[in-house]
Amino acid sequence: MRASNEAMLLRRIWQAELVSRAELARETGLSASTVSSIVGRFAEDGLVRLQEAGPSRGGRPPVMVAFADDAYCIVGVEMGATHVTVAVTDLRGRILAEEYTPFATREQPEETLALLVRSVRSCRSRAGAPGLRCLGVGVAVPSPLDVRRPGELSALILPAWRGINLAERLVVALGLPVVLENDANAGALAERWFGIGGDDFTFIKVGTGIGAGHVISGSLYRGATGIAGEMGHLAIDPAGPPCSCGNRGCLHVLAGTPALLQLAAAVPGLEHPPTSALEIVAACNAGEPWAVEIVAKLGGWLGVGIAGLVNLLNPSHIVLGGEIVQAGEALLAPLRASASARSLLFSASHVEIRATSLGPAATAIGAGALMLDRALDDLSFFVSTTQEVA
Ligand SMILES: [Zn+2]
Fold first, then answer.
1. Cα 198 from chain centroid?
2. Ligand 1 mean position, distance from CA 250 (Å)
């Protein structure tokens, strides 16, 4: 009971940022003396700061409780198919240090593990004073996660990683708690905690693969075995090209980065066909007709998938992430047109479709938010992680 009261209070203080002890008692139904003794312990542990408010109308001025965003840092990691991003943040998602390394992670598990460890260590040592306490490490991975084997990646999607317990290996190497999350779910968490999320929205990550993270009534929806949101394998065109999953015409084979690059390679007369999604985005933003056309085509396919999603889940908005969203309206306008042509509900639901407002480290920050969420559920994370920078 006491532990859950403490967790409830600390989460409430994080949400409010600054709140009076009296208000906390009112909101939680705990007695003033219970609130004051728990908050006193938080202050001793450095999790909150107590300060006096200005003079009140008679009586003693209320004691205000401020969440200490700098009490710990969190490490967020995005292991993408072609890069690793590490972002060390404070407890409010503000970046203290970050590092981006291009790297083909899917075929090279051991080298990727070594890179992750190196990058986390170097970011931590750049993030602040030595001895800054670290809550743990959240890692976003380009794979669904099976709730029965939460430390491992899908051997179906990443065969080279078969039998490797990524979470355990990192715990041993870093000496910190580690949680894994699917990358689209991590993007959704970043929007929910620090971005333009809300209680009912879907985050869609468009990259080498396409995945969705659904927040339903305020919580991330993972499904029965943890693979909800594998939107990339929605069948869009039954007569389309074959997909690695065994079906044809999945959204992923039509609108993922490899499909984009194939379309670009087939453009007649291009002297240097692009080798990355970012190059296509740059050409599109410069008004090159072939690139505008490819981005619009991608938007059209995404619109087909999104029309189905809106019919199923009725989100208030959809947030898109991934490098391609830097093409802005060149992507979003054809996407909306395609979705509304296929779904009466799309128009009726007034669903808003936007690009993420969090920068390129959003997915890493979202993985860190998962670590913070765990710790606000189980406060033992706050006392058990006092390791110095390795
Ligand atoms: Zn597929």
1. 14
2. 5
